[in-house]
Amino acid sequence: MEVILKEDVVNLGHRGDVVKVADGYGRNFLLPRKLAMQATEANKTVIEQMKTASARRAVTEKAQAEVLVSLLEPMVLTFTRKSGEAGHLFGSVTSGDIAAELTSKGFEIDRRKIQLAEPLKSIGDFFIPIKVYRDVTAHVKVIVVGEATTDAPATEPAAVAAAE
Known about the structure:
alpha+beta, Ribosomal Protein L9, domain 1, Ribosomal Protein L9, domain 2, 2 domains, 3-stranded antiparallel beta sheet, 3-stranded mixed beta sheet, 8 strands, about 40% helix, about 30% strand, elongated, disordered C terminus
């Protein structure tokens, strides 16, 4: 079955591409979700018009994405988590945590656009890529800090009392 993609589909193609897919995949997944339409002659002419409009829209979207990158690049996010002595966290910093912090700073970034291979589980500085648009990626600095332990001041007076 040949279909024309209405939206970008991962591992299949971009908006406006004519692709050949299995009948069941097209009929049961792509068509009901309005991700594609059947590739008929009438639809192909409509798609040509959509491609020209899409090209114009892509230029403006890319320009907006580059402006967003210029705002995100100097951003530094700091997370404080409980940690062990070796610098390993008792939890982790996930892409959801980063997205929530960006939302609190006024940026609406979907957590799936944050390209974090695995959650951050150690203390340190990290540069996290955020895919803002197809070919536009921002790198945000994330600092993970260990939470200050409150046990240290409590043991000092006991040590002073034992010394007297």
